[in-house]
Amino acid sequence: MIRDKGIGSKLWRFAVWALAGLFVLNLLAVMAAVVVNSFATRWLGTWMPAGWTTRWYFDAWREFQLSSVVIVTFQIVFTVVLISGVVGVVTAYALARRDFPGKRAIVLLFLLPLLIPPLTYGIPLATVLYQVGLGGTFWGVVFINLVPSLPFVILVMIPFIEQIDPRIEAAARVFGAGTWSLFVRILLPLLLPGMLAALLLVLVRTIAMFELTFLVAGPTSQTLVVSLYYAVFASGVRASQSIDAMAVIYMVTTLFWLVLALQFVSPTQIVARAKQQQAT
Amino acid sequence: MSGPSLRTRLAARGIDGTTLLVLPGVAVMAALFVYPFLYGIVDSITPREGAWYANYARFFSDRFQYGTIAATLWLALPVTILNLALAVPIAFRVRLMSRQRLLTTILVLPVTLGTVFVADGLLTFLGPQGWFNRSLILFGILESPVKLTNNYWGVFASLLITGFPFAFLLTLSYVTGIDPAIEQAAATLGASPRQRFVRVFLPLLVPGLAVTFCLAFVQAFAVFPSAVLLGAPAGATRVISIAAYQAAFEQYDHSMGTAIAIVMGVVELLIVVAVLGLRSLFYRGPAGGTKG
């Protein structure tokens, strides 16, 4: 590693670290503000609230009917993860192993939803879903969430499958493995770590996916983040502590899965298909 | 006399049983992405009344509507540039850290929590009695609280909080992909830190930065919940996604809503294509040293 000793680069280093520190400080303060407010009896014009209470959590849980919202959220999210996982891994396998005419067009098809703003394809898709009677239903929300999550699984899985040596499969064939036992005994164990990572990432992203869910969610198919949006949107109707209590419930739900996901992937992979093999 | 069978000929071109596994994925995308998209294009040129281009004509003749393009760009471009400008130097320092994990984990929080949660937090944090204003007054930077919510700056802050970590983590993954030996070689040959950055790193990074810019811009351009919750959705931060949403779901004119959504996609893709086009003017090649 190269270190420069000059006063100029010391100042520059200090400035960069100060900026990074300032950002992290503000970020943590934003989250802390939500948590503190959710436990506050009254918080007006002071650094810290006047007193502490947990009653907003009971209020929020009852008022926003969170028990059903949380159940619906997980039903939707797990359905999306299951479908995009099965379809995505199968598709990624074909794309990783074969080179065929039109492959570039198909890869582009899976890249487009990640490059186009969600509302651009969300509004036409929501229109179609409402016309076939799926708007506001459970399956409507699942379908609209598949559009970004399926390509995501595929794009995460392709490089993962490519690094599995095809000769392993060939060897299994030589020893007489049929397609089924090849899949169950050879491929599945090798693919499992990558699948787990991809599916946990999709899970975290789907819990937090607001725009698309918002377009088709009906009263019985609202996810946590959409309920939170409506609560913040209509703030003034309810105590801000109650809304923040709900935000904390949402935060804990998301962070639980995030922590789980981080056991298998590096944080950089949540935004990018990081090429981190070289990191030492 | 017969040549190789059809099956063999297809297999030689890469089409066999395994290739067919691509079909379920393509079918899902065709049903949920391609068909609705084509439907949307047709829908947008079959307005309730008037000629086929009536929706677009209405959008581009109403200042309240076409002004949303400028409002969105006025938010998304400065934020994206600022995020990238912050991300590059910080990523260069963090690259040298041995324990990056804590920092990257903290920074991934806003990305995963999403804009709705961040908007809720910022409403308290940036409010007139929030910690931000209080701190600035405490340090004597401000005399009285400034208004930072329900205007342009509230949305700006929310895009900074969610956008910077995103840009940073992407940049970091590109920066760590550059072989440190390249920098050491430059230093050995007497390049100063500035020269190493400008002459060695920057050219290697430009392709990655262009992609980072595009992805960060896509996110900022699609700003929706925070523009409603933290901004002035009828005024300065009436972004194009609000216009599209209102047309489709508040005035129940899905034809018009789709038209605005398509305008939104076209404007965004124009900028993405322009940036990626500029990228091709720069060096493109391996940055990983000799191992390849």
UniProtKB/TrEMBL annotation, chain A:
Q: Does the keyword Transmembrane helix apply?
A: yes
Q: Which domain of life is it from?
A: Bacteria
The principal location of this protein is: membrane
User: TM segments?
Assistant: 12-40, 69-95, 107-132, 138-161, 182-208, 214-233, 245-265
Q: Which InterPro entries match?
A: MetI-like, MetI-like_sf
Where does this polypeptide localize?
Cell inner membrane; Cell membrane
Q: Topology in the membrane?
A: Multi-pass membrane protein
Which key words tag this protein in UniProt?
A: Cell inner membrane, Cell membrane, Membrane, Transmembrane, Transmembrane helix, Transport
Q: Which Pfam families match?
A: BPD_transp_1 (PF00528)
Q: Where is the ABC transmembrane type-1 domain?
A: 70-261
The record's family statement is: Belongs to the binding-protein-dependent transport system permease family.
The molecule here is called: ABC transporter permease
Tell me which species this is from: Shinella pollutisoli
Automatic annotation (TrEMBL), chain B:
What is the protein name given in its UniProt record?
A: ABC transporter permease
KW Transmembrane (keyword) present: yes
Q: Which UniProt keywords apply?
A: Cell membrane, Membrane, Transmembrane, Transmembrane helix, Transport
One Pfam family from the record: BPD_transp_1
* Top-rank lineage group of the source organism: Bacteria
Family, per entry: Belongs to the binding-protein-dependent transport system permease family. CysTW subfamily.
Parts of the chain that traverse the membrane: 20-42, 66-90, 102-126, 152-176, 197-221, 260-282
- Subcellular location field: Cell membrane
Domain ABC transmembrane type-1 span(s) in chain numbering:
69-277
Topology relative to the membrane: Multi-pass membrane protein
The yes or no answer to whether the keyword Transmembrane is present is yes
Q: Which PROSITE patterns match?
A: ABC_TM1
Q: What is its main location?
A: membrane
